[in-house]
Write a structure and sequence with these properties.
It is built from eleven helices and seven strands. It is α/β, with parallel strands linked by helices. It is globular, with a radius of gyration of 40 Å. About 26% of the residues have low confidence. The chain binds zinc ion.
Length: 314
């Protein structure tokens, strides 16, 4: 209090604004104990005061030697640091586009399990069970309709099993305008093939509750059984059978089917080390008397794409 009174008296001839400024300047000088005449850095705590400067009034005198540019600099730093400390606006959170998830009805295909369906639509198994009043011990039936809550667009689930059995990939068409793995399975059961669908994979074309380009595995693939799709040259025992839904004698393969076929074949041939020359159209297998997968199937383009993928890989 006495110190304040002394300062007041020494500044009593100043106008109030100048008085406040000098008081503030003195306080700053005390705080930093910087001697601008010397130009040295702020003195570390514990360092004795300069020998030639008396205490008390001396501190004030030293502070008075602080030039005006020092305070302008301090004010600048203060403004800058307050700007730097200003909270940043919250980052924009990228929200998934609307409509990417929706409730859909799924028809259970041959050999499908709750696990596979949950993977396909990226929905927890518990949510599927709850939405359909099922329990974990419930057995799904082929053709059963399931409500899939908040499903994403189905992604292909292609299981790969270690095996040296598969050395060829044979491409077929279903020679039907529509269908899916379930209808093919039922048709082959009807033929008396007790293992059902003779192919290992079916690629849909947007009909029969399946999306255009959707890849379905059949029970023969899940169980790693021989196919029933190409007897010629013993391909049933060594060739993976892939069937595209459609009659490519009359219609064209869809863009999505073609892309899915490339994706599937590239995945399989890389995993099983199948050379491109062993990826064959059914009709090109030695001994096969058929035009499968149809006159309109773009085989040359398909081979070109496979070779392109091979070159890109290397
Ligand atoms: Zn065929």
């Amino acid at each position: 209090m006495r110190e304040l009174k002394r300062k007041f008296l020494s500044h009593r001839n100043l106008n109030p604004l100048k008085f406040r400024f000098r008081l503030w300047r003195d306080q700053i000088g005390e705080k930093f104990r910087c001697d601008p005449a010397v130009g040295g850095p702020p003195r570390p705590v514990g360092t004795p005061p300069d020998s030639g400067v008396p205490s008390g009034k001396g501190d004030s005198a030293r502070a008075k030697r602080v030039p005006i540019w020092f305070f302008i600099l301090l004010a600048g730093i203060s403004i800058f640091s307050s700007c730097a400390r200003a909270p940043l606006p919250p980052p924009e959170i990228s929200k998934p586009p609307m409509g990417t998830r929706s409730d859909i009805t799924h028809t259970v295909g041959p050999g499908e399990t709750c696990w596979r369906i949950s993977q396909m639509y990226n929905v927890p198994i518990a949510a599927i069970l709850r939405a359909n009043d099922l329990t974990s011990s419930s057995v799904l039936k082929m053709g059963q309709k399931l409500l899939i809550p908040q499903a994403t667009r189905p992604k292909p689930i292609v299981n790969l099993y270690p095996s040296s059995k598969w050395r060829y990939i044979i491409v077929h068409h279903s020679a039907t305008g529509s269908g899916n793995a379930l209808s093919v399975h039922n048709a082959h059961i009807h033929k008396g093939w007790d293992r059902g669908a003779g192919y290992h994979f079916v690629i849909d074309r947007g009909a029969s509750n399946k999306r255009d380009g959707q890849i379905e595995m059949t029970p023969r693939w899940i169980k790693q059984q021989d196919g029933a799709h190409c007897k010629a040259s013993g391909m049933n025992e060594k060739g993976i059978g892939v069937c595209l839904i459609g009659n490519f004698d009359k219609q064209h393969v869809t863009h999505r089917q073609f892309e899915s076929l490339l994706e599937l074949v590239n995945k399989l041939r890389r995993y099983y080390h199948i050379p491109i020359k062993n990826i064959i159209a059914h009709g090109h297998v030695e001994g096969a008397a058929t035009q499968c997968p149809g006159k309109k199937f773009p085989w040359a383009k398909f081979q070109e794409e496979l070779l392109g993928a091979e070159i890109t890989k290397h």
